[in-house]
């Protein structure tokens, strides 16, 4: 596995406010790094610095062994970018969007015609190849965005909220494509608001809050550290005895869905709870990144 | 990116790729894009040359009297270069930046913002030159009629100079694009800058001399120098060195002074990089 992305101590202030503070990341080939955090955590700013939209105030970015400061064009030759919003070229057809995007890279991709035909086929875009992108559904628009990000055969792929606004079927289809890209050895940096997506796709997660790295580990480790091993799902309103037990154990939960309280606990606490409320009707589930998100965004109550 | 690298980016392949993309779009729509430069001079030469010219008679230029239609033919070339280059970076670039988000897509590649800027400026200039060439063909066809009498070689010789002037007008247009908050605000540069420049430039009528302020305004107007340079070549077969030197110096100053702040403003606007 080769190191494709290395950022060291990135810092960025916007409008006098520190937005990214001392962020260091690494991505190797065949690895998906998920950037996670509540709104305003600095995910998008970090991403935009790494793909060259914003200039860091301090720190360095090395892409596939080439520093941004040394040779930005060479560094950008190794990367593909799928931005949050669709930015394809509405003056061209789906196929020509790929050709035009390819014209912005040197050295040009060998066997470009075959490569573009392959991308159209792989992303299910072949039947729409001669249509304008604005005739495509949301799911196919996102596929085109990802396909376009791959037109230069990058080694490192940036996916900024790639499935936002898609229906579950389209999301899963795109997940399968992202998984297959990872299996081919691409390094991928992903930001998402969907916790199941981050959990399903990421090998490692970086949790950002107020511009700082709160945690950097596998999804399982991070959940264990920030949330707990189990989540007790209780129906509201709670019995006074349960409220008292939670207060005395200094455990806070969050409203997972209206009418329910989701309470993250460790194994010992779960045993204690079970012993105290033998007749109470409740569920226990594994923690997910929604719980983490609630914890980070201060949603716990 | 330091200033030298910024100016040098005009020669980078990425800048060519950007204006090459615009050329591809133009080539697809050439039949609609071809109409304005082909139809406009016909209408202007007929309306002004035949219509107004019948009332105006001749106009004195370079020590001799020329037909009014002959007088305005070089003006139409100059006017085409100015308006095409200025409007293309004003409206065309704004649409690509704001509505189509073409720039954002380009910037995810090896293209950097200075390449987008130079690509837009070169494209606007190339388009202006293409339009001026179409206008030139129409004028050459009119030259077979008694309506006008110009030097065809002078006309052809004027086109490369016009191209150089176009770079300045395109750079000025892009500067306004960077600062105007919406497309509706484009009326400000069009009517407060563009139209006054066009009508104080000797394109369609000679500006009366003697008022020192008006004289200064005219001398500071590169459209005037381009118009007079073109007229000198087309009507007398003479290269007006003073217009060439003063006009191109003004263009150079516009390009050198306008493009770096344009880039800084667009960096904030397109990339959201407001600095710290």
State the strand order across the main sheet of chain A: 6-7-8-3-9-10
User: What is the level 1 CATH name of the largest domain in chain A?
Assistant: Alpha Beta
- Which pair of protein chains has the largest interface, and what are the residue counts? A-B, 35 and 26 residues
Average pLDDT taken over every residue of chain B: 94
The CATH architecture of the largest domain in chain A can be given as 3-Layer(aba) Sandwich
Helix content of chain A: 25-40%
How helix-rich are the residues of chain B, as a percent range? over 70%
In CATH terms, the superfamily of the largest domain in chain A is P-loop containing nucleotide triphosphate hydrolases
Could you tell me the radius of gyration of chain A in angstroms?
Answer: 22 Å
Low-confidence stretches of chain B: none
Number of domains of chain B: 1
Characterization of the model:
The complex is a heterodimer of chains A (about 300) and B (about 280). Chain A is an alpha/beta fold and about 300 residues long. Chain A folds into two domains: about 5-220, P-loop containing nucleotide triphosphate hydrolases (Rossmann fold, 3-Layer(aba) Sandwich), CATH 3.40.50.300; about 225-295, Alpha-Beta Plaits (2-Layer Sandwich), CATH 3.30.70. Helices cover about 35% and strands about 25% of the residues of chain A. Chain A is built from eleven helices and 13 strands. In chain A, strand 1 (about 5-15) and strand 2 (about 15-30) form a beta hairpin. Chain A starts with a strand and ends in a 5-residue tail after the last helix. The model of chain A has no long low-confidence stretch (mean pLDDT about 90). Chain B is mainly alpha-helical and about 280 residues long. Chain B has one domain (about 40-270). Chain B has a two-stranded antiparallel sheet with strand order 1-2. Chain B is globular. The model of chain B has no long low-confidence stretch (mean pLDDT about 95). Classes of the chains: A alpha/beta (about 300), B mainly alpha (about 280). The interface between A and B is medium-sized, with 35 and 26 residues.
């Amino acid at each position: 596995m080769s190191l494709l992305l290395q950022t060291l101590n990135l810092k960025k202030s916007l409008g006098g406010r520190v937005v990214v503070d001392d962020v260091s990341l690494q991505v190797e080939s065949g690895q998906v790094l998920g950037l996670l955090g509540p709104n305003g955590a600095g995910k998008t700013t970090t991403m935009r610095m790494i793909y060259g939209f914003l200039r860091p105030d301090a720190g360095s970015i090395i892409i596939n062994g080439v520093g941004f400061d040394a040779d930005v064009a060479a560094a950008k030759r190794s990367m593909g970018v799928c931005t949050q919003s669709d930015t394809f070229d509405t003056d061209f057809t789906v196929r020509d969007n790929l050709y035009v995007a390819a014209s912005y890279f040197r050295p040009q991709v060998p066997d470009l015609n075959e490569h573009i035909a392959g991308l159209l086929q792989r992303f299910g875009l072949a039947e729409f190849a001669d249509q304008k992108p604005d005739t495509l559904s949301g799911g196919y628009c996102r596929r085109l965005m990802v396909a376009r990000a791959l037109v230069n055969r990058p080694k490192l792929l940036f996916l900024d909220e790639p499935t936002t606004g898609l229906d579950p079927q389209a999301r899963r289809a795109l997940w399968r494509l992202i998984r297959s890209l990872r299996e081919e050895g691409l390094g991928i940096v992903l930001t998402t608001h969907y916790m199941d997506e981050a959990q399903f796709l990421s090998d490692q997660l970086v949790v950002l809050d107020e511009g700082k790295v709160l945690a950097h580990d596998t999804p399982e480790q991070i959940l264990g550290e920030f949330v707990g091993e189990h989540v007790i799902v209780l129906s509201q309103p709670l019995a006074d005895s349960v409220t008292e037990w939670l207060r005395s154990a200094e455990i806070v939960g969050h409203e997972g869905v209206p009418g329910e309280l989701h309470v993250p606990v460790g194994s010992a606490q779960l045993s204690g709870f079970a012993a105290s409320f033998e007749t109470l009707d409740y569920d226990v589930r594994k923690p997910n990144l929604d719980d983490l998100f609630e914890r980070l965004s201060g949603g716990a109550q | 990116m330091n200033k030298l690298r910024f100016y040098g980016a005009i020669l980078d392949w990425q800048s060519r790729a950007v204006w090459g993309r615009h050329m591809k779009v133009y080539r697809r729509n050439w039949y609609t894009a071809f109409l304005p430069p082909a139809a406009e001079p016909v209408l202007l030469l007929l309306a002004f040359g035949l219509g107004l010219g019948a009332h105006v008679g001749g106009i004195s230029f370079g020590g001799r009297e020329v037909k009014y239609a002959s007088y305005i033919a070089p003006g139409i070339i100059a006017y085409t270069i100015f308006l095409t280059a200025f409007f293309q970076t004003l409206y065309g670039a704004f649409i690509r930046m704001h509505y189509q988000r073409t720039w954002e897509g380009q910037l995810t590649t090896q293209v950097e913002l200075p390449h987008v800027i130079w690509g837009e400026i070169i494209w606007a200039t190339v388009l202006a030159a293409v339009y001026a060439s179409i206008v030139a063909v129409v004028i050459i066809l009119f030259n077979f009629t008694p309506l006008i009498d110009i030097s065809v070689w002078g006309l052809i010789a004027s086109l490369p100079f016009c191209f150089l002037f176009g770079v300045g007008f395109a750079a000025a247009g892009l500067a306004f694009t960077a600062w105007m908050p919406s497309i509706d605000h484009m009326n400000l540069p069009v009517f407060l800058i563009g139209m006054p420049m066009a009508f104080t430039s000797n394109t369609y009528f000679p500006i009366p001399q003697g008022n020192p302020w008006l004289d200064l305004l005219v001398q500071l107007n590169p459209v005037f120098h381009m118009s007079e340079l073109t007229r000198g070549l087309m009507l007398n077969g003479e290269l007006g060195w003073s217009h060439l030197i003063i006009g191109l110096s003004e263009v150079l100053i516009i390009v050198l002074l306008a493009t770096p702040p344009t880039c800084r403003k667009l960096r904030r606007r397109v990339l959201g990089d407001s600095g710290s």
